[in-house]
Specification:
- By secondary structure, the protein is of the alpha/beta class.
- It is built from 15 helices and 21 strands.
- The strands form 5 sheets. Strands 1, 2, 3, 8, 9, 10, 11 and 21 form an 8-stranded mixed β-sheet that branches. It has a 4-stranded antiparallel β-sheet with strand order 5-7-14-13.
- It is globular and about 70 Å long.
C-alpha cells in the first residue's frame, strides 16, 4: 500500500509496529527482512518516485572544512536513494577493518568479521552476485596477467559489480507496494522525533505541499544516510548525551598517487584498468596493503587501481568533459539517469572489448600516464563532523554544516601503499613508480585531481556519523544498531561504521541492515512472549520542535492513537 503525502490535506495519523525512515538500500533491505519475519512496517520516504529539485534542496548545507561536493548534490532524496545512480561496486570489509588497531585512533568495531559473514552471504544474492567471493586466483585462472605480489606486502582484492543500476528504485519494489503489512508514504520528510524516559514516543513527517503525518511505532529505524541520520538526531536532541552524534565523518577520498614508468604498461592496464567477465560476473582487481604491511608501517587499509589518465595539470579531453557534464550537470531524473546509464554501459562495453588497446595507445602517444588512482581509507577523526547550522530548510529543520577533516595518517598511508607498490613492480621488473609530488613530506595534506576520476573528491560515501561502539562514551549505537540509552530507536547505514576500510560500503550496509532486522525481530518476539505492552500512549512534552505534535498533545486514551 502506498500513499503520497503531497496528496494529503492537513494531518493524518498512523500507528504501526515498526517505522523505517528512508527508502534507500538500507531501509529497503531492512523492511523486506522484517516483512518476511511477519512484522508490520511503515516506510517513510522524503522524496517521491523520481528526482525533484525542491525535495533535493532539503539536502543543502554548508561545507566548512575540506573542499567537498555541494551537499544538495551529495545524496539523492527519492525512492531508492543514491543507489539509483551508483556504480554497482560490491566488496566486503577485510577482517583487519573490524579490529582495534593501535596505530589508528578510535578504531575497532564491537562486532567482528565472523559476526557479519553470514549476513554478507545473504546480502550477495540481493545484488545479483554469486554466493562466493572472487579471489585474484580466479582472475589468473581466466587468463588475466595479474602480477604476483608478495603476500606480506600487497593484497589484490576483487570488486564484483551489480549488473542492475535500478535495483532499489520504486519500480523494483512492487513486492513491498503489494504487501499487506507494508505501508509506504512518500514525500514524508521527518522533521522531528520525540522521546521520553529512554524511548521514542512519536515522530512527525511533512511534505512540501503541506501534508503532515504523525506516527507512533513500537520501533523506529533511521535509514536516511550518513548525513541525514546525524541531522535528525541532532535536530531532535536524541542520542547525544556524550557529544558523539555527527562526529567521525569519513569518506573514501580520491587522489592521484603517482604514475608507473618504464614498464609493462599493456599487462598492467589489462589487469587493473578494466572489468573482466569471470563465471558470469563482472569483476575488477585493485591493490591494497597487506595486513602485515599495515601493522608494520602503521598505515590504513587504503586502495589504488592502475589506470590510464591524462598527466596532472593537462587540459581535459573533450570526451571526458562531456562525460563529466552528463553525469554531474544533468538532473538525475529518470530520463537523465537512463541517459547516463546508457553511456556508462557503452563505456563498460568498450572497456571489455577494446581495452587495453585504447588506453595503451594513448599512453604510447604521450597523451596518458599509467596513473595510480587512489581510493583511500580515512582515519576516524572526532573533529571531522556534521553539526547543525543556523539556516533552516523549507520544512523548518536546521541545515547541516560539514566540517570534513583529513589527517596526516591519511596521507602517510597513501605514501606507504605507493612505496610498497614501487618495491613490488621493481622486483618483478614491470616498471617503477614515480610518486605524486604532493606525497612529499613538505607537500599538502591532501590533493584532489580533477583528471584522475569522474568523482575527483571522493566516492560520495558518508560514513561514521552515528558510529557503533561498546559504550555511549565513544559512539552512538550499540552492536545491534540500537541507539545507546533509547530502547526502541535503531540506525542502519554506513553512518554506523566505526571505520571505513577500502571497500565500497553498500554491500556492508545491506548486510548490517539484515543483521539489525534480525535483532529487532528477536527483541519483539521476546517482548510479545513476555506479554509486555507494545504500544506507547503516554503524552509527553516535546520541546525541541516549534509546537508539540498532535500525538503528544492527545490524552493517553485517545482512540486516534
Amino acid at each position: 500500500m502506498m500513499l503520497d503525502l503531497d496528496d494529503v490535506d492537513g494531518t493524518i495519523r498512523r500507528r504501526t509496529e515498526i517505522c523505517v525512515i528512508g527508502a534507500g538500500a538500507a531501509g529497503i533491505a531492512l523492511t523486506r527482512r522484517l516483512l518476511a519475519a511477519g512484522h508490520e512496517v511503515l516506510l517513510l520516504e522524503s522524496g517521491g518516485r523520481d528526482f525533484e529539485a525542491a525535495t533535493a534542496d532539503l539536502n543543502a548545507g554548508s561545507n566548512i572544512g575540506e573542499d567537498y561536493y555541494p551537499l544538495h548534490d551529495a545524496r539523492m532524496r527519492f525512492f531508492g536513494g543514491t543507489t539509483a545512480i551508483w556504480g554497482g561496486r560490491c566488496a566486503e570489509l577485510d577482517p583487519i577493518d573490524f579490529e582495534r588497531r593501535d596505530w589508528v585512533p578510535h578504531s575497532g568495531w564491537p562486532i567482528g568479521r565472523d559476526d557479519l559473514a553470514p549476513y554478507y552471504a545473504q546480502a550477495r544474492p540481493m545484488f545479483g552476485l554469486s554466493d562466493r567471493r572472487f579471489e585474484v586466483a580466479d582472475l589468473r585462472a581466466a587468463g588475466v596477467p595479474v602480477p604476483q605480489f608478495r603476500d606480506h606486502l600487497l593484497h589484490t582484492p576483487i570488486w564484483t559489480f551489480d549488473p542492475r543500476f535500478n535495483r532499489f528504485t520504486l519500480d523494483a519494489c512492487a513486492d513491498m507496494q503489494a504487501h499487506p503489512r507494508c505501508h509506504i508514504i512518500c514525500h514524508a520528510s521527518v522533521v522531528g522525533i520525540a522521546q521520553r524516559a529512554g524511548s521514542v514516543q512519536c515522530l512527525e513527517a511533512r511534505s512540501l505541499k503541506g501534508g503532515r503525518v504523525m506516527v507512533i511505532a513500537d520501533i523506529v529505524v533511521l535509514a536516511a544516510g550518513g548525513i541525514e541520520n546525524a541531522r535528525l538526531l541532532l535536530a531532535s536532541h536524541i542520542g547525544n548525551d556524550n557529544d558523539q552524534v555527527g562526529r567521525y565523518f569519513m569518506e573514501h577520498p580520491h587522489a592521484r598517487g603517482g604514475r608507473i614508468v618504464g614498464g609493462d604498461s599493456w599487462n598492467l592496464l589489462k589487469s587493473f584498468a578494466r572489468r573482466h567477465r569471470v563465471a558470469g560476473q563482472d569483476v575488477a582487481a585493485l591493490v591494497t596493503p597487506a595486513a602485515a604491511l599495515q601493522r608494520r608501517e602503521g598505515i590504513l587499509n587504503s586502495s589504488l587501481t592502475i589506470v590510464a589518465r591524462q598527466p596532472a595539470r593537462a587540459a581535459q579531453f573533450v570526451g571526458m568533459r562531456a562525460y563529466g557534464s552528463l553525469k554531474h550537470d544533468i538532473a538525475p531524473t529518470r530520463r537523465g539517469r537512463a541517459l547516463w546509464m546508457a553511456t556508462k554501459k557503452a563505456a563498460n562495453w568498450a572497456q571489455q572489448h577494446i581495452d587495453p588497446a585504447r588506453p595503451w595507445l594513448l599512453h604510447k602517444a604521450g597523451l596518458a600516464d599509467i596513473a595510480l588512482l587512489v581510493r583511500a581509507e580515512q582515519a576516524p577523526n572526532p573533529e571531522s563532523r556534521i553539526t547543525l547550522g543556523s539556516e533552516i530548510d523549507a520544512l523548518g529543520v536546521r541545515r547541516v554544516n560539514l566540517d570534513w577533516r583529513l589527517s596526516d595518517l591519511d596521507k602517510r598511508s597513501v605514501t606507504g601503499l605507493v612505496r610498497a607498490l614501487d618495491e613490488e613492480i621493481s622486483r618483478l621488473e614491470i616498471g617503477r613508480v614515480e610518486a605524486a609530488d604532493w606525497l612529499a613530506e613538505d607537500g599538502p595534506n591532501w590533493q584532489t585531481d580533477p583528471l584522475i576520476s569522474s568523482h575527483p573528491i571522493g566516492g560520495y560515501h558518508h560514513i561514521g556519523t552515528t558510529r557503533m561502539s561498546y559504550t555511549p562514551r565513544t559512539g552512538v549505537v550499540d552492536a545491534d544498531g540500537r541507539v545507546h540509552g533509547v530502547s526502541n530507536l535503531y540506525i542502519v547505514g554506513s553512518s554506523t561504521f566505526p571505520t571505513a576500510g577500502w571497500a565500497n560500503p553498500t554491500l556492508t550496509i545491506v548486510a548490517l541492515a539484515l543483521r539489525t532486522a534480525d535483532r529487532i525481530s528477536a527483541m519483539l518476539a521476546k517482548r510479545h512472549r513476555g506479554s509486555e505492552t507494545s504500544r506507547v500512549t503516554l503524552p509527553i512534552p516535546f520541546s525541541v520542535m516549534r509546537r508539540p505534535p498532535a500525538c503528544l498533545d492527545a490524552p493517553a486514551n485517545d482512540p486516534r492513537f
